[in-house]
Amino acid sequence: MTADNHQRQDDMVCLPRTEFEALLEQAACRGARKALKEVGLADEEAANDIRTLRDLAGSIKTMQRTFLQTVVRWITIGVLALLVAGVAAKLGPFTPK
């Protein structure tokens, strides 16, 4: 056995699967708590803050959709008004006889 192989074996840790899974879950929970704390969502109001953000995002989506619908309506009305004006100009009192 070489020195590198011996050193690698000394660095290895053997755990039963259940202990390994528990260790992973504990590390994941710590990481999640740390991430929430870093973004300011570690207090009692965090759930309410998240709900508020979701509501805000939903409102923004609704506003964008409504804005787009309004723009399409105005463009449609403008095109129809131009068509009506064109027909009126051809058939109406503005044409010489």
Automatic annotation (TrEMBL):
<protein>
    <submittedName>
        <fullName>Uncharacterized protein</fullName>
    </submittedName>
</protein>
<feature type="transmembrane region" description="Helical">
    <location>
        <begin position="71"/>
        <end position="89"/>
    </location>
</feature>
<dbReference type="InterPro" id="IPR046130">
    <property type="entry name" value="DUF6127"/>
</dbReference>
<keyword id="KW-1133">Transmembrane helix</keyword>
<dbReference type="Pfam" id="PF19622">
    <property type="entry name" value="DUF6127"/>
</dbReference>
<keyword id="KW-0472">Membrane</keyword>
<keyword id="KW-0812">Transmembrane</keyword>
